[in-house]
Amino acid sequence: MVNLELYRVFYTVAKCGSLTRAADELFISQPAVSQAIKQLEGQLGTPLFNRTHRGMELSEHGGKQIFDIVARALGELDEAENKLKEINSTATGTIRISASDTIFSYVVIDKIAEYHEKFPAVKLNLINCITTETLDLLKSNKCDIAFLNLPVDDKDINLSGVIMPLHDTFVANKNYAALAEDVQPLKSMHDYPLLMLDQNTVTRKAIINFSHSIGVHLHPEVECGSLELMIQLAKNGVGIACVPKEYVRRELNDDTLFEIRTEPALPARSIGIAFPKNQPVSYATKEFFKLFNKDE
């Protein structure tokens, strides 16, 4: 197959009508232009130009037969390149963002508002689901950027950074305020009605794995599919909720809830950002990602 650059030289010479002017436009030497034309004519088996005192003219049975086709082909290739450049330098299209209801509410919502104001042309498709479901979306390329409760050990995703620490703790309303006056043994928590997230969540698994590692078995009286529901139940005295402290700061500050510290404390976790593995990241998605790193 003929080298595409030979056709580009042919098109430029035909347009300029001169080897010298074509060389100037292509930023190569005149002998290089002449050699490229000879090479193309040799491969196609026909003269493409008539060399006259006025310059280079397309030959009747060679260059004139292919010029329009070559011009269209090069134009379409230039359009394709420009389209990719636009995608890689302009925030357009759709971003599919996946996270849990809690992460959307406490971590991402302000950034979504900021991004929408900056790039109103970008459509945001928000997919709310728990971390295990988000992992499936990432691996099947059904979301462009995901926010995950860590730890997650999965080599089939591209985990790109940590955006927020999480410190799990126990909270309850005034009915249990006395427990907040001193540090309680972690194992004593199973003596009270515990509220915890569903056992299929990364958060619940991390807490249970840690407690089991030190011989403590925490059995919740109520399992919740939503952290917001669990907080509301705790505020209404149903029991002691195990939640990230970062999500209940307002309630702790206004004494709607009280923190019950334990020994040992539950280990810190975090929220991470991930992308599908081995997939190109659009400019629009990169700009959204930057919102979480601009202060670093």
Automatic annotation (TrEMBL):
GO molecular function, one term: DNA-binding transcription factor activity
Alphabetical list of SUPFAM superfamilies matching this protein: Periplasmic binding protein-like II (SSF53850), Winged helix' DNA-binding domain (SSF46785)
TM region(s), chain numbering: none
Gene3D superfamilies listed in its UniProt record: 3.40.190.290, Winged helix-like DNA-binding domain superfamily/Winged helix DNA-binding domain
A matching Pfam family: HTH_1
InterPro entries (UniProt xref): LysR_HTH_N, LysR_subst-bd, WH-like_DNA-bd_sf, WH_DNA-bd_sf
Keywords: DNA-binding, Transcription, Transcription regulation
Domain of life: Bacteria
Domain (HTH lysR-type): residue spans on this chain: 2-59
Family of the protein in this entry: Belongs to the LysR transcriptional regulatory family.
Protein name: LysR family transcriptional regulator
Naturally occurring in which organism (per UniProt): Candidatus Borkfalkia avistercoris
